[in-house]
Specification:
- InterPro entries: Alpha/beta_knot_MTases (IPR029028), PUA-like_sf (IPR015947), RsmE (IPR006700), RsmE_MTase_dom (IPR046886), tRNA_m1G_MTases_N (IPR029026).
- One of its GO terms (cellular component) is cytoplasm.
- One of its GO terms (molecular function) is rRNA (uridine-N3-)-methyltransferase activity.
- It is an enzyme of class 2 (transferase).
- The protein folds into 2 domains: about 60 residues, Ribosomal Protein L25, Chain P (Beta Barrel), CATH 2.40.240; about 170 residues, SPOUT methyltransferase, trefoil knot domain (Alpha/beta knot), CATH 3.40.1280.
- Strands 8-7-6-10-9-11 form a 6-stranded parallel beta sheet, with helices on both faces. Strands 1-3-4-5-2 form a 5-stranded mixed beta sheet.
- By secondary structure, it is an alpha/beta fold.
- The radius of gyration is 20 Å and the shape is elongated.
- The relative contact order is 0.15.
- α2 packs parallel to α3.
- It is built from 8 helices and 11 strands.
Length: about 250
C-alpha cells in the first residue's frame, strides 16, 4: 500500500501536498475510495481513503495503525563528503531504508569535493527529497534529516550521542574485531549513536586522534576495506541485526 508523509496533525480529513497528490492521482491512478497509509506529524501511521480529488486531494482518516518500523535506537551517520554526486545519494537512499535517523555530510581533511554557498543548499535539498522518497518506499515512520557540517570540530561539538564511534580501516588491519560489538552491547532502547566515516582516502591520524580525545571510539568493520559509500551501510545492517534480530 502506498505511504505518504504529511506534516499535519491528526484530523478527520487530511489534504495531501501537491507533489504527493500528483503522484497518487496521476502516477498511481488513484480515485475516490483508494486506500493509502499516511504518516502524520506525530510519526504515527494512519489508514486513510481518498474522499476528494478536485481541486485538491483530500483523504479521510479511517483508523490509526499500530505500525512502527523505526530502530529502537537513534542512529546518526556522519560521512566525509565523497567526491561524486552519486555516492551521497546512494548513502542517503540506502541508509534511510536501513533505518538511519540522520545523515550528516562533513568537510573532512581528505574530502575532494566541497559544498559551499548555494551548492550546499541545493545538495541538501536534493538529498532530503531522496530521503523522503526512500522513507515512503521502505515504510518508515519518519523521514531522516540530511544535514551539512562545515568541519570535524563542529561535528564533534554539535552531535552528541549516547555512544559515538568512528570507523577506521587501521583498526581492521590490526585485527580488532570486538570494539563495535561491545558498543552495540551497551545500547538500550531510546539511546542514540553517532557513527563517523571518512571520505575516499579515509580519515587522517590527526582526525582520529582528535575524535579519540573527544571520547569517540575507533572501531573496525571487519577484515575487508570498505568503500566510503559501503561502510555506512555495513554499519546500519550491523546495528539492525544487533538491536532487532539478535
Amino acid at each position: 500500500m502506498q505511504r505518504y508523509f504529511v506534516n499535519a496533525d491528526p484530523s478527520a480529513e487530511i489534504t495531501l501536498p501537491s507533489e504527493a497528490a500528483h503522484h497518487l492521482l496521476k502516477v498511481m491512478r488513484a480515485g475516490i475510495g483508494t486506500k493509502v497509509e499516511l504518516v502524520l506529524a506525530d510519526h504515527c501511521v494512519y489508514l486513510a481513503t481518498v474522499s476528494v480529488t478536485e481541486p485538491a486531494a483530500k483523504l479521510k482518516i479511517i483508523q490509526k495503525l499500530l505500525s512502527n518500523s523505526e530502530l529502537p535506537v537513534s542512529v546518526t551517520l556522519a560521512c566525509g563528503i565523497p567526491k561524486t554526486k552519486e555516492k551521497p545519494e546512494l548513502i542517503v537512499q540506502k541508509s534511510t531504508e536501513l533505518g538511519a535517523d540522520k545523515i550528516v555530510f562533513f568537510e573532512a581533511a581528505r574530502s575532494i569535493s566541497h559544498w559551499q554557498g548555494s551548492k550546499q543548499k541545493r545538495k541538501i535539498e536534493r538529498l532530503q527529497k531522496i530521503a523522503e522518497s526512500a522513507a515512503e518506499q521502505s515504510h518508515r515512520n519518519k523521514i531522516p534529516l540530511v544535514e551539512y557540517c562545515k568541519s570535524l570540530d563542529a561535528l564533534i561539538s554539535d552531535y552528541p550521542a549516547t555512544k559515538r564511534v568512528v570507523a577506521w580501516e587501521e583498526s581492521a588491519k590490526q585485527g580488532e574485531t570486538s570494539a563495535l560489538a561491545h558498543q552495540f552491547n551497551g545500547l538500550q532502547a531510546g539511546d542514540s549513536m553517532l557513527a563517523v566515516f571518512g571520505p575516499e582516502g579515509g580519515l587522517t591520524e590527526t582526525e582520529i586522534t582528535k575524535m579519540n580525545n573527544a571520547g569517540i571510539e575507533a572501531v573496525g568493520l571487519g577484515p575487508r576495506i570498505l568503500r566510503t559509500e559501503t561502510a555506512p551501510l555495513y554499519f546500519m545492517a550491523a546495528i539492525s541485526y544487533a538491536m532487532e534480530l539478535s
